[in-house]
Automatic annotation (TrEMBL):
Keywords: Cell membrane, Ion transport, Membrane, Potassium, Potassium transport, Transmembrane, Transmembrane helix, Transport. Its main location: membrane. The chain crosses the membrane at residues 33-51, 63-82, 94-118, 145-166, 209-232, 244-265, 311-343, 364-387, 426-447. Pfam families: TrkH (PF02386). The keyword Transport applies. This is Trk system potassium uptake protein TrkH.
Amino acid sequence: MIENDDHTRRRSALYKIDSFVNKLKNNMSPPQLIMVVFFVLIWTGTLLLTLPLSSTNGKSVGLLNALFTATSAICVNGLVVVDTGSVYSTFGQVIIMILIQIGGLGFMTFGVMVAIVLGKRIGLKQRLVIQQTTHSTSAQGLVKLSLYMVLIAFAFEALATVILTIRWHYEWGWGQAAYYALFHSVSAFNNAGFALWSDSLSPFVGDPIVNITIVMLFIIGGLGYIVVVDLFRKRSWKRLSLHSKVVLLGTGILSGIGFLTILLLESWNPSTFGQLSGGERVLAAFFQGTTPRSSGFNTIDISSMLAASQFLMIILMFIGAASGGTGGGIKINTLIVLILATIQTFRGGGQIHAFKRKIGEETVMRALAVVMSSLVVVLCVSLLLTITEGMLEEHFLEVLFEATSAFSTTGLSMGLTSELSPPGKVIVIVTMFAGRLGPLTLAFALAQKKRLSKIGYAEDHILIG
């Protein structure tokens, strides 16, 4: 009788919890649901990383350090306040790797996989959340897109793991090499930038296999799943969507500019390229020219680079990867839309178009809103860090670099991260969270059907320029 009463109470408690969760989901908009789930995932990761089991010395790393790491992993950032390879145990590193994978693919993608396995139906609310997280323009075909995303991610990560395992097994043996290869493949494809060495990938600055493999991973991940699927399906430049063409063209131009500029500038810098051969300089310039697009890895010391190179990296970090990809920033497609609008304005106005396709005015306004809001956040965070860290004016570039890296979820640092004060850590945590969710929630909010005002106002003019 007592066992039956206990069983009834447990069922009642589970029913109440399930009822509360369903009620909460039904009362939330997709952006709110995304924010809450990411928040829960971050704190789940934080609690796991605070366990003594997660550290190499058997002691907790502390709540704030664990929160910083978990936020950085879920937001696929890469900034760290403690060294991932030496401070966290294998258990802690695996937790970080899982958080990176969830943060890169999106929790709804895994939710779709679970629902399909269990034979459950994907409802309209879930489809809207998937649309929000993948930056899709339509709610049709989202379940198939989610499956493609998982397949693409695991395929590229598995291929890279095999390549890097073969390359590294001479140094560490097959088992350790396979673990290192898997961790860095997941980190690279998801544009997280977490490395198991304190100097990132600097030991491999002249290694073409490691360089090319890692670069290809974070470039493909940064292109966005929609672009990758479009390439696999159509396999013809003419048949690609406007979005895919803009992203591919912009990625090629920015990568070329970054590579050539850093090769030219750093060739005069003995602190970075001084000890490198010609071939190693090309590899280093190629890696550092593409990594600010939200990767977070580096093969030379960022703090030793010339100020001009560092400022270029700030610009590239702010631009970031493409919408729907694993990278951050304002997105390359956003920048190109504003550039096209600016060029058309200089020509006297008229229709904005690219590749014989018209770009709507609402798209331009959304792009402008994303850039302006992102710029305000970066400047405000820079101001706050200057105050909390007591930075003098000669270190302002270092602060701006850190703020941009945190918001754009890039993960590169000039050395300030490891020296952050507790208030500074909190500021960067909030910035990483806002940088990962900001474009998602903002894009969804701007995409809402606009309410037509019943009041018509007389048009007037404001002087510009």
